Amino acid sequence: MTTLSPFSGPVGVGFIGVGVISDTYLENLNSFPDVEVLILGDLDTERAASQAEKHGVPASGTAQDVLDHPGVQVVVNLTIPAVHAEISSAAIAAGKHVWTEKPLGLDRESTAALLKQADEAGLRVGCAPDTVLGAGVQTAKRAILDGIIGRPLFAQTSMQWQGPEVFHPNPAFLFAKGAGPLLDIGPYYFTTLVSLFGTVEKVAAMGLKAREEREILVGPNAGQTFPVEPPSTISVLTQFEGGQTGTSLVSFDSPLARQGVVEIHGTEGSLVVPDPNMFEGRIAYVRPFESFGEAPPEQEWIEIPQSGPVTGRGLGLLDMVRSIHEGRPHVASGAVGYHVLDIMLSAEESAASGEFVNVESSVDTVPVLPEGFDPLARTV
Q1: 159: domain range?
Q2: 313 found inside a domain
Q3: 41 contact partners, CB below 8 Å, separation of at least 6
Q4: pLDDT tens-digit profile of 349-365?
Q5: CB-CB contact of 20 with 54 (8 Å)
Q6: Contact, 151 vs 126, CB < 8 A?
Q7: Of 35, 184, 294, 363, which sits 20 to 30 A from 313 (CA to CA)?
Q8: InterPro entries this protein is in (predicted)?
């Protein structure tokens, strides 16, 4: 990659896409001294103007207005997944670094081309989820690196419930190709596992659909039905390059609601990691029994105080900006986003074929967030 120049003063940021999730991004980024949101762009320019007024952003307009803005150094891509790669590529062509919501893209070809384009241009790409930068996952990762559970052996994760049609007035897109529970929710869990264990070598998966059509249950379109394209429940086995294995369930078909389950089991203990869709939560571990009589005693949970930032969405962009300035890798990188996409697409292929699928991509060791990382400090 081309050597990147350090920034001088707050880094100019522009948004393309100002849907519901833009609120939390804007609230957080407007509180970070190292960045300055300059313009919001959207297909609906009235909505862009409304969000700009609401959050005190000085300008609004179209996506092209964002790309043409001379002060914008980083584009935040909050468009729909189907155009993530296209919009990010346009931003890179305009000479901007990119932070994009997950997934990085919907296919390997366009997302690999995007990363190649950025590398040749000497620009960075960051990809959500950035929950792995929160105090929860960062504390858990440091505990594992410190050897608190010995050598990590395997992981178990689970996210299951009855599905978004119980609250979302237009849920069809969440059951379309490129979504489903795997590509919608899976990035949180697989990004966490990749952050903790590194490269996944191969996967096996089984999927099912509870039904071919589902019904909207709330809002003005209640009673209408829509098709289900990808599996609405999928179980994934992962084999990591370091020898660890993982078992992961994501489901929109479960009457039992259970989410945020991430357990890491090692030779000297088992660790519970907070919900990877959150920036903080409980971190605790148990030790193995030394011996016992006829019945095992109740295991004692040892709590680990969390440390690190808990701000929320936008941390990944901030870390990327600071990493450019400091000349270090950033945590939620485009390479990690691509590898996670490759894992999930490989799982879909495995579920369709009934065979193990090799994951062709790999990642370098995902760095730990620097100690003392303070989002509210001015560093550039």
Answers
A1: 135-303
A2: no
A3: 14, 15, 16, 17, 18, 48, 60, 61, 62, 63, 64, 65, 66
A4: 999 999 999 999 999 99
A5: no
A6: no
A7: 363
A8: Gfo/Idh/MocA-like_OxRdtase_N, Gfo/Idh/MocA_oxidrdct_glycsds, GFO_IDH_MocA-like_dom, NAD(P)-bd_dom_sf
